[in-house]
Design goal:
Order of helices and strands: HHHHHH
Largest sheet: none
Number of strands: 0
Low-confidence stretches: none
Shape: globular
Mean pLDDT: 80
Number of helices: 6
Structural class: mainly alpha
Length: about 120
C-alpha cells in the first residue's frame, strides 16, 4: 500500500499541474476531512485491504494523499519520503519508520500526528 500512496500522490500532483497550466480546476476533490473521518496514522499506514464503503474509501484516499503531500512538502522532499515508504513497505510500523527517517529533524510521531490531524481537518475551523 505504501507504493500505492506514493503513486496516487504523484499522479494527483501531476494532474493538478496539468490542469492549472490550462486554467482548469479539479471538481469534487477533497483536501480535508471531518475529524470523525480521521483514520489513525498507524492504522492508515498498515492497511492491507481496500476500504469497503464509499465514505471509507474517500477518507482513506484523501488522508493518504494529504499524508504524502505533508511529508513531501513539509518534511524534506522525495529522499526522506522514499526511505520512509520503503521502510513501511518492508513492514515497519509508522512510528518506527518515522523515527528512522524523520526523528532527527522533527518531533516524535505523536506530535506529528497531532499536527497532521489539525492540517487534515482544518476545514472544520
Amino acid at each position: 500500500m505504501a507504493q500505492r500512496r506514493l503513486a496516487e500522490f504523484e499522479g494527483f500532483r501531476l494532474y493538478r499541474t496539468y490542469l492549472k497550466e490550462r486554467n482548469y480546476t479539479l471538481q469534487n476533490v477533497r483536501d480535508h476531512l471531518n475529524r470523525d473521518q480521521y483514520i489513525p496514522l498507524d492504522t492508515l499506514t498498515s492497511a492491507v485491504d481496500y476500504p469497503r464503503t464509499t465514505d471509507e474509501a474517500t477518507a482513506f484516499y484523501t488522508e493518504s494523499e494529504r499524508l504524502i503531500n505533508s511529508l513531501y512538502y513539509q518534511h524534506g522532499g522525495i529522499g526522506p519520503l522514499m526511505k520512509f515508504l520503503k521502510l513501511q513497505s518492508e513492514g515497519a510500523r509508522f512510528d518506527s519508520a518515522w523515527r528512522d527517517v524523520y526523528g532527527t529533524k522533527s518531533s516524535d510521531p505523536q506530535v506529528f500526528e497531532n499536527k497532521f490531524i489539525a492540517y487534515l481537518t482544518k476545514a472544520e475551523e
